[in-house]
Design brief:
With 432 residues, the chain is of the alpha/beta class. The protein folds into two domains: 49-256, Uncharacterised protein PF07075, DUF1343 (Rossmann fold, 3-Layer(aba) Sandwich); 269-394, Alpha-Beta Complex (Aspartate Aminotransferase, domain 1), CATH 3.90.1150. The protein has helices at residues 2-38, 49-55, 82-88, 161-174, 219-228, 252-255, 269-282, 307-316, 359-370, 376-379, 385-392, 396-404, 408-415, 418-425; strands spanning 65-70, 93-99, 117-118, 125-128, 146-150, 178-182, 237-241, 299-302, 322-329, 341-348.
Length: 432
């Protein structure tokens, strides 16, 4: 009986000991998670514009009624929204929010129009810059002294956020309002420049600026160029809050910053690298480029392609920094949904050597050689040609390529403006 009591007592103590250990381990894990979360920013060496602004105690915003153009990518190094940071700052008066494509909280699909409303988190009025107007109107700017821009871009001309910035700079100039860019990294770095300048008859919201397709500038540097090169009728009163410790040779992974999806089909930092790889061809709706599948912008596929021979023919080209891998798939939410498809996945073995935007034209060429009955401009819906021309910045690409379906016929045109733009853009470098 005594022994039984002792055993029970020992069992109880052992149970308490194990429970205590579990509690201790759980507590340690939670503490580690909290330390990791709260210390996340401390482990990131570089600082974006919002971090630098916070460090200055929002000095340039004091005494100003602030309007903020942003979306979910406007966050600090701990992933806190710039909206909430400014709303909570005791010396900042946030009076208006402006939403680009996809909206200030990222709850709108590509191309969908947005209505004005009040932000449920802060009660601040939200005005749409992707609805009835894409340029802030005088009424939208009533009572605003300073427009602040904080959006992560992806370094490609056809991505619409820089068009929003351009039009907002115009509106700021016209209404004598200061314009501040909280600078962020160009995910493609500050060295890659690819593609022709936009021709006069082809400016649109997906090619709003006379810059190459891949332009190698941060948003702050681009804003300086817009002002300095007279791209808007009158310059705005521009301030760029520079980053700290960003270098031109960095792609996004080099920064150590957390990635927030810039839009539904750019879920990861590396998705931004592939957007210029296939985005122009993707406008034709002719081949699946993986949008709506698990590899957005990373593949080229169709039901009439043989994956192995397609990959082999593309790899024979020995494009610098690139390997093509055969892929078999059955997408459900993209071109060819529900169809067994074959094609290639693009692997960037050497990002610095790869010519990103050229890849889609090589794919179009090889597709025409292997499958002449499926030449792209002979079979793509002609109602998509207009958008293809807009993102190309010219109809020359389509017209010249469609003659022989060879990249060589457009290469000189596609690359003709790159070196001149490189020299021009150096005037506006904020980082070395």
């Amino acid at each position: 009986m005594v022994q039984q009591r002792v055993t029970r007592k020992n069992d109880s103590q052992g149970s308490l000991f194990l429970s205590g250990r579990r509690i201790l381990i759980f507590t340690m894990i939670m503490c580690c998670m909290l330390i990791t979360s709260s210390g996340y920013a401390q482990n990131i060496r570089m600082k974006t514009g919002i971090e630098v602004l916070k460090a200055s105690r929002f000095r340039i915003l004091q005494g100003k009624r602030v309007g903020l153009i942003t979306n979910p990518t406007g966050v600090d190094n701990n992933l806190k929204s710039t909206i909430d940071i400014l709303h909570e700052a005791p010396n900042v008066q946030l009076v208006a929010l402006y939403g680009p494509e996809h909206g200030v909280r990222g709850d709108v699909h590509a191309g969908d129009k947005i209505s004005d409303f009040k932000d449920p988190n802060t009660g601040v009025p939200v005005y749409s810059l992707y609805g009835s107007t894409r340029k802030p109107t005088k009424e939208m700017l009533e009572g605003v002294d300073l427009l602040l821009y904080d959006i992560q871009d992806i370094g490609c001309r056809s991505y619409t956020y820089i068009s929003t910035m351009y039009l907002a700079m115009q509106a700021a100039a016209e209404n004598d309002i200061g314009f501040v860019v909280l600078d962020r990294p160009n995910p493609l770095g500050g060295i890659k420049i690819e593609g022709n300048l936009v021709e006069e008859d082809f400016f649109s919201f997906v090619s709003q600026l006379k810059i190459p397709y891949v332009y190698g500038l941060t948003c702050g540097e681009l804003a300086e160029m817009i002002n300095g090169e007279g791209m808007i009728p009158q310059p705005c009163r521009l301030t760029v809050v520079k980053m700290k410790k960003w270098r031109r040779k960095m792609n996004f992974e080099d920064t150590g910053l957390p990635w927030v999806p810039t839009s539904p089909h750019i879920p990861f930092a590396h998705s931004a690298y592939f957007y210029p790889v296939s985005g122009i061809l993707g406008e034709l709706g002719y081949l699946s480029i993986g949008v709506g599948y698990t590899l957005p912008f990373e593949i080229f596929a169709a039901e009439w392609v043989n994956a192995e021979e397609f990959a082999e023919a593309l790899n024979v080209k020995k494009l610098p920094g690139i390997t093509f891998r055969p892929i078999h798939l059955k997408p459900y939410y993209s071109v060819g949904a529900g169809t067994n498809m074959q094609g290639v996945q693009i692997h960037l073995n050497d990002f610095n050597k790869a010519r990103l935007s050229d890849i889609q034209f090589h794919v179009m060429e090889v597709a025409a050689q292997l499958y002449p009955e499926h030449k792209v401009f002979d079979h793509a819906p002609d109602n998509r040609f207009n958008m293809f021309d807009k993102v190309s910045g010219s109809d020359f690409i389509r017209r010249a390529f469609s003659r022989n379906h060879r990249f060589a016929d457009i290469e000189a045109y596609w690359t003709k403006d790159e070196e001149a733009f490189r020299q021009l853009s150096k005037k506006y470098y904020l980082y070395r």
